[in-house]
Amino acid sequence: MKNPGLIKTFIAATVIPPHRVVALAAGDNEVALATDVAGPLLGTSAEPREVAAGGRIDVTFNGIEEVEAGAAIAKGAKLTVDTQGRVVTSAVGTDNIIGRALTAANAAGDIISIEIDKE
Predict the structure, then answer these.
(1) pLDDT by residue (tens digit) across 39-66?
(2) Can you say whether the dihedral through the CA atoms of 106, 107, 112, 115 is positive or negative?
(3) How far is the C-alpha of 33 from the C-alpha of 50, rounded, in Å?
(4) 58: which strand partners?
(5) Is 0.85 topped by the overall pTM?
């Protein structure tokens, strides 16, 4: 169940599917799909559908959000991103963390609840 906290509207620099993690993009007030575990993770897309490049997108910075899993995930796992902006279990201590899984994912494509808690 969603319980978003702080939400801000940005412009999508790239196509952003629903339920994905985003990062700041080069342009002012722009975000892009987060695809790098070493890059800073900003928040999650709060949009129920895909946002085209140039479109407005609401980004959730904290709270509880629903995101798409990129693999099986155990409840309580610390989460980072895969190359498609989906959440996956963090493999090493140097990964940037977007939050913690509140529900488990059985496979890639599952929508799970996470607590956004960036480290």
Answers:
(1) 899 999 988 999 999 999 999 999 999 9
(2) positive
(3) 11
(4) 9
(5) yes
In this structure, what token pair is assigned to residue 81? 């991103």
**C-alpha angle 60-65-69 in degrees, rounded to nearest 5:** 115
Q: How many CB atoms are closer than 10 A to CB 95?
A: 19
Q: Residue ranges of the domains in the chain? A: 3-62, 64-116
Q: Is the pLDDT of residue 5 over 80?
A: no
Query: What are the distances in angstroms from CA 30 to CA 2, 3, 38?
Result: 24, 24, 19
Cα-Cα-Cα-Cα dihedral sign, residues 80, 85, 88, 91? negative
